[in-house]
Amino acid sequence: MMRDVIIVGSGPAGMGAALYGRRAGLDTLILDATGMPGGQITTTYEVDNYLGMPGINGFDMAMAFQEHVKKFGAQWESAKVREIEKKEDGFTVKAGDKEYRAKTVILAAGASHNKLMVEGEEELAGMGVSYCATCDGAFYRGKTTVVVGGGDVAIEDAIFLSRFCEKVYLVHRRDELRGAKILQDRLFELPNVEVIWDSVVERIAGSQAVEQIHLLNKKTGEKRVLSAQGIFIAVGIHPNTEVFRGLVEMDESGYIVAGEMGETSVPGIFVAGDTRTKELRQVITAVADGANAITSVQKYLLEKK
Ligand code: NDP
Predict the structure, then answer these.
(1) Which of 107, 208, 225, 302 has its Cα between 20 and 30 A from that of 10?
(2) Low-confidence ranges of the chain (pLDDT < 50)
């Protein structure tokens, strides 16, 4: 069966594309790698900057998006894409144990958490080392936790954890946070959050679970050991584009090179959301990318006729 468009990824970009695809009357299939729609927002406690939904929980937002998309009749399958092949008449998308065919493809596979790459991180993953405060934070009621990073996610995580942890340390490698000013203001008001500046994690230690976080102050060379039961690593993201390597042009960080309309180096393949080269990776820009990518798909299909 030859579809009009296959959308790889079910985050805000993929779902935005699916909504616009169905409204444009395109035969639209979303391939969802995890069985859970929403991408990164499903692990975001609060999204406070999407128009009309102040303070919405990320999981609730994902469910609302999916309901909207399904209402318009987009087809949905849970299958992880293994390979995309360009053919004479379109594309073959190999996902899970199946093959799907489409005239166009939108790559909207999103991004994933970066790791610190320090001793103890992998060994103690799931035993106190976490990349998702909203998923695991509740296990640390009354405990001491450490958040690493200085972006929006790190600040939000520290604010979230401060609600039930006795003490939260925010460890940042510079003397200034990168995250939004409004979040910084909220953070600095919290009595049980201590920011440790200019410092990096050297080692995460513990026998069965996290017990100590070993820090190095990069300015003074001073070492410090924090006693903590949990560490939440929020040091940015990388695009989930490994499987598309060699298919479309990417920059040195693996982001697929494209402008606002999502046109990649290969005609018929479009990109939307965090996977694309862009300035601002937010839910609102991801959804907009999805709409733009469908406009490009329509144009491409018309020109092919
Ligand atoms: P960011 O890239 O914004 O921040 C990553 C942070 O981690 C930076 O402070 C960086 O330090 C630090 N860092 C990176 N590598 C290391 C390392 N190896 N060791 C120590 N620290 C490190 O990523 P986020 O995940 O915070 O956010 C991703 C995107 O999602 C952003 O665009 C953000 O705005 C957006 N977002 C928006 C939200 C909202 O609007 N509500 C909520 C959550 C995310 P340095 O500053 O020195 O570079």
Answers:
(1) 302
(2) none
